[in-house]
Design brief:
Layout: E1 2-5, E2 8-15, E3 21-25, H1 36-42, E4 47-51, H2 68-82, E5 87-92, H3 94-105, E6 110-116, H4 126-140, H5 146-153, H6 156-161, H7 167-172, H8 181-193, H9 202-209
Helix pairs in contact: 2-3, 3-9, 4-8
């Protein structure tokens, strides 16, 4: 399904028809299909919302750098559109950063947060790291960053046992990012300079989760 919000078309899907809401937010270079296995299990007890983040999958990919505030606003408008006033949040990497930014801007909406392989700060070496990935994406497309991505995401043993994992980062977003590395440049630039506002201490995130 798609809906036009915050000046872009947002692609999303809902699994399950009973129970509390759970919202799943994917990492950089993936799309909502990266949650297929988890959604199949969670939808037995929850209503599961998955969406393609700005610049990913079937969601619009406008030019320019994206900010965490902007991506959190995408989430806010999507939840509002669907009438979701409370939800659990599960975010991987970039999805965790989006979740933290949203929680601090809209306290009380998230009943819980599970942040996997994420951060609330920009490390000192981030600009150089993202700069190298930008140059590679521009020169070689997404295939150019495939091997380094797999090395960061999966151990060598797991890659040997599960060769299908090799297809996930590249194949999942072939319909968008794989063909438009310029959008990865926009995301990389945004993440290389972005931090989650006021999220330096756990107490702030804790207050954001508490009902207002």
């Amino acid at each position: 399904m798609k809906v036009h919000l915050n000046n872009i078309d947002i692609h999303y899907t809902v699994d399950g028809d009973k129970g509390p809401w759970v919202t799943l937010s994917h990492s950089l270079g993936c799309n909502l299909t990266s949650w297929d296995a988890q959604a199949a299990l969670l939808s037995k007890h929850y209503r599961v919302l998955r969406y393609d983040s700005r610049g990913h999958g079937q969601t619009s990919a406008p030019t320019g750098a994206y900010t965490l505030d902007e991506m959190a606003e995408d989430v806010h408008q999507l939840l509002t559109h669907l009438g979701i006033t409370q939800t659990h949040w599960i975010g991987i990497s970039m999805g965790g950063m989006i979740g933290q930014t949203y929680a601090l801007a809209h306290p009380g909406v998230f009943q819980s947060m599970l942040l996997a392989d994420s951060t609330s700060r920009r490390p000192p070496q981030a600009a150089a790291m993202w700069g190298e990935r930008i140059r590679t994406a521009r020169a070689e497309g997404m295939q150019g960053v495939l091997e380094s991505t797999l090395t960061r995401w999966f151990t060598e043993g797991y890659r040997a046992r599960a060769p299908a994992a090799r297809e996930a980062p590249a194949g999942a977003d072939a319909e968008r990012i794989g063909h438009e590395p310029a959008q990865v440049v926009g995301l990389h630039r945004g993440l290389s300079t972005g931090t989650c506002p006021r999220s330096g201490s756990g107490s702030n995130v804790g207050r954001a989760l508490a009902p207002a």
